[in-house]
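Task 17 of the worksheet. Students: predict the tertiary structure of the chain below and write it out as structure tokens. Keep your answer in the requested format; marks are given for formatting as well as content.
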Amino acid sequence: MQTEITISVSPKAATEKESIKLCSARKLNIDVNSISDIKDS
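Model answer:
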């Protein structure tokens, strides 16, 4: 299932895919391992 969310991260975190996944997982209240891919807009 795809879910679109908006998050704000620091410029440093924005360059690190794992940081983005971790922030996304926290916002969605899910396990980070359940995120298979992220796309930036």
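Marker's comment: The chain has two helices and no strands. The chain has a mean pLDDT of 89.
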